[in-house]
Write a structure and sequence with these properties.
By secondary structure, the chain is α/β, with parallel strands linked by helices. The chain is 37% helix and 23% strand. The chain folds into 2 domains: 3-56 and 362-423, Urease, subunit C, domain 1 (Roll); 58-352, TIM Barrel (Alpha-Beta Barrel), CATH 3.20.20. It contains 17 helices and 18 strands. Helix 4 packs parallel to helix 6 and helix 8 (237-243) packs across helix 9. The two termini are 38 Å apart. The structure holds guanine and fe (iii) ion. The site of fe (iii) ion has 6 residues, from strand 6 and strand 15. Residues 64, 79, 83, 87, 191-192, 218, 221, 280, 306-307, 310 line the site of guanine. This is 5-methylthioadenosine/S-adenosylhomocysteine deaminase.
Length: 424
């Protein structure tokens, strides 16, 4: 039996009451067993968290780990040119080893910045090696190979036959879904409507229902992408996905920057999960997603960093901060307040992946997926009035993450110079 006792922490639970408590967390194997003051247990590992803040691990609902090695493509291109000129040729150049290390590097950055679950879209080939990295690293994941069976602009090496794309996806699902005692899940990843035939999408709809797994795709990100879909299908993205029965509670839709009222209604009524990627939407000049209006309509929105070339890192602190501040000039200071953002990054992400009974909050019975932060900067005047959630959303960085735990295992420990703060 493995056990961890985290002592004397400030705990942001994100339970239904969003309580912030002071006390201990007792973890046995992969689960939180008890939370309370001065718990009497002994444990194989005791962490003194005096002055530290414990949060549920972040859940990122849209990432491409296969793009981590393409960081630094600091080009000034919009989406379709960027894909054609940069991303697709680079994805086509991947081999088994580069996919593995691209994933491992990304996962290392995610863990360093407190992310414990990712929804990951890989490229066409070698996804088996990304799963190997996800499995070995200990992070929680829903991942899948990208599917693209049409499009004149898609490089020859990435162009798939419909049948092969489906078969390879099912083979990967059978190998990896529910792997590592359910820590790894499969998700079908048709890239976007532009690169998928109706036959492929219809089959993905049926397979997702058959295996009860998520479908993870991009939609309504950028003007030229939307135009391509309208030209071909005479419909907007979400309307088209709905017409073939893909718009349902298992669908995770990345971006959704430009939605009309009908698309918003479909998203709300069908329980589609929107993954908002503010950093990527700014970098690729896609636009500012209308998240306040989606939330007003009670649509489901969570957060993701997208690929590393969009924002240079996979840091949820960046995404939270951007998600909050980009709305303020137009919608006012409270339209996307810190608590709303923090909810999207934690329990909201858990709902997006259908694991809200397991992760997303710190509660007895849930999986032990959490991060321990040291928010005690030398340059912040000590005050008991600081709201820790506001502090995290607006001023924390990944340097503040001391420990990241997934499934009851310590995957990252980084005791920084800031631990000196108690001795002066
Ligand atoms: N749409 C289709 N593919 C991609 C991708 O790799 N990144 C982003 N941001 N949008 C896409
Ligand atoms: Fe993306």
């Amino acid at each position: 039996m493995n056990s961890i006792l985290i002592k004397n922490a400030e705990i942001i639970t994100m339970n239904d009451q969003e309580e912030i408590l002071n006390g201990d967390i007792y973890i046995v194997d992969d689960r939180i067993v008890e939370i309370g003051k001065n718990l009497p247990h002994t444990a194989s590992k005791i962490i003194d968290a005096t002055g530290r803040t414990v949060i549920p691990g972040f859940i990122q609902t849209h990432i491409h780990l296969c793009q981590t090695l393409f960081r630094g493509q600091a080009d000034d291109l919009e989406l379709m040119d960027w894909l054609k000129k940069k991303i697709w040729p680079l994805e086509a150049s991947h081999d088994e080893e580069s996919i593995y290390y691209s994933a491992m590097l990304g996962i290392g950055e995610l863990l360093q910045s407190g992310t414990t679950t990712v929804v990951d879209m890989e490229t066409v080939h070698h996804t088996d090696f990304a799963f190997k990295a996800l499995s070995e690293s200990g992070i929680r994941a829903l991942a899948g190979k990208v599917m693209m069976d049409k499009g004149d602009e898609v490089p020859f090496l990435l162009r798939e036959k419909t049948k092969d794309s489906l078969q390879e996806s099912v083979d990967l699902l059978e190998k990896w879904h529910n792997h590592d005692s359910g820590r790894i899940h499969y998700a079908f990843c048709p890239r976007f409507v532009v690169s998928c035939t109706e036959e492929l999408l219809t089959n993905v709809r049926d397979l997702s229902a058959k295996y009860h797994v998520r479908v993870h795709t991009h939609a309504s990100e950028n003007a030229s992408e939307i135009l391509l879909v309208e030209k071909e299908h005479g419909m907007r993205n979400v309307v088209y996905l709905d017409s073939i029965g893909l718009a349902n509670e298992r669908l995770i839709l990345a971006h959704c920057v430009w939605l009309d009222e009908e698309e918003k209604r479909i998203i709300k009524e069908r329980g589609v999960k929107v993954s908002h990627c503010p950093g990527s939407n700014l970098k690729l000049a896609s636009g500012v997603a209308e998240v306040p209006s989606l939330l007003d309509q009670h649509a489901h929105v969570s957060l993701g960093a997208d690929g590393a070339p969009c924002n240079n890192n996979l840091d949820m602190f960046n995404e939270m901060r951007l998600a909050a501040i980009i709305q303020k000039p137009v919608h006012g200071p409270t339209a996307m307040n810190a608590r709303t953002i923090f909810r999207m990054a934690t329990i909201g992400g858990a709902k997006a992946v259908g694991l809200e009974s397991e992760i997303g909050s710190i509660e007895p019975g849930k999986k032990a997926d959490l991060a321990i932060l040291n928010l005690n900067d030398f340059h912040v005047y000590p005050s008991y009035d600081i709201d820790p959630i506001s502090r995290i959303v607006y001023s924390a960085t990944r340097a503040d993450v001391e420990t990241t735990i997934v499934n009851g295992k310590i995957l990252m420990e980084n005791r920084s110079m800031k631990t000196m703060d108690k001795s002066i």
